[in-house]
């Protein structure tokens, strides 16, 4: 039986400055992540499974500022943030300032599925991980030696929004945060409504200057624009314009609506994006 919903998936690899010679690799990374999620959707899998799988691929790719290869804080440590959210149920899970977790997006999902709380931070997140038997790793294992000299260039976030064959939308967002941040700093990515949000209208994942994104609650703002009947692309551009007007900040976002239409916008220098629509063709942009 053919689905009445039009599936789609969109992935971003972070907004900011990217060396010209690195851009093809980052686009390839986004493409591979989108294809991984798309394969799950085509097999009847959930949007949540697809979004999580896409972000895991990006967390495991040291080119991106999430998971392995995350940037360092002012003490030379990796502290990561991540969140997942389902649009239909409004269930969500998030972790912030976590160390020694190879794939923070997996832990965020476990938080959501556990259901006792929605958000754990720092040592509390690690205590939760231990309590449920979630694997931890040596924090040093997340530091990529070949990237040490280039930490100041690391930027952004990774994220995915997916719409499955049942019309369900899910969002996953993960980041290592900003270079040289003070320990305990939390950006927009794990904050529901700010860097990550999904509801019955659509889903959004953001990247960029977290403090600015938080101030305008950008993910929810974009979906409010969508609810007011803006097309996804228009909603994305309007949200970025509002951010620039109100805060002077730089950011990007990706968005999907319930009809399987996607949008993406940025006022950063670059934001590698890959998306796949119902025709199965892979689209790339930066």
Helix-strand layout with pairing:
Elements: E1 8-12, H1 23-42, H2 47-59, E2 80-86, E3 92-98, H3 104-114, E4 119-121, H4 122-131, E5 158-163, E6 169-175, E7 196-198, E8 202-208, H5 210-215, H6 218-227, H7 232-247, E9 251-257, E10 262-266, E11 273-276, E12 282-285
Parallel strand pairs: 3-4
Antiparallel strand pairs: 1-5, 1-11, 2-3, 2-6, 5-6, 7-8, 8-9, 9-10, 11-12
Helix pairs in contact: 1-2, 2-3, 6-7
Describe it for me?
The chain is of the alpha+beta class and 286 residues long. The protein has one domain (8-285): Glutamine Phosphoribosylpyrophosphate, subunit 1, domain 1 (4-Layer Sandwich), CATH 3.60.20.30. 30% of the residues lie in helices and 23% in strands. It is built from seven helices and twelve strands. The longest helix has 20 residues, at 23-42. The protein is globular.
Q: What characteristics describe this protein?
A:
8-stranded mixed sheet, Glutamine Phosphoribosylpyrophosphate, subunit 1, domain 1, 286 residues, globular, single chain, 12 strands, 4-stranded antiparallel sheet
| Mean of residue pLDDT values | 94
The end-to-end span amounts to: 36 Å
Computed over alpha carbons, the radius of gyration is: 17 Å
CATH homology group: (Glycosyl)asparaginase
**Major sheet size, sense and barrel closure:** 8 strands, mixed
CATH architecture: 4-Layer Sandwich
SS strand fraction: 15-25%
Count of all domains? 1
The dominant shape is globular
